[in-house]
Specification:
Blueprint (H helix, E strand, L loop, with lengths): L2 H4 L13 H11 L8 H5 L11
């Protein structure tokens, strides 16, 4: 595997309803050995629970 390709992370952000999830899921179909991880899944991984950012 090409080492450069193996080390890329794409973060897609924007307001609600603009197609972030749809675009991300389509990208996983185009890139071999890729994964879609929802931001909601990440925000619930905190050991002490989800906190307000302020």
């Amino acid at each position: 595997m090409n080492k450069k390709a193996a080390n890329k992370v794409y973060i897609i952000s924007g307001p609600a309803g603009v197609g972030k999830s749809t675009t991300s899921k389509e990208l996983t179909k185009k890139f071999k050995n890729s994964a879609y991880i929802s931001g909601d899944n990440i925000s619930h991984m905190h050991i002490n629970g989800r906190k307000n950012p302020w």
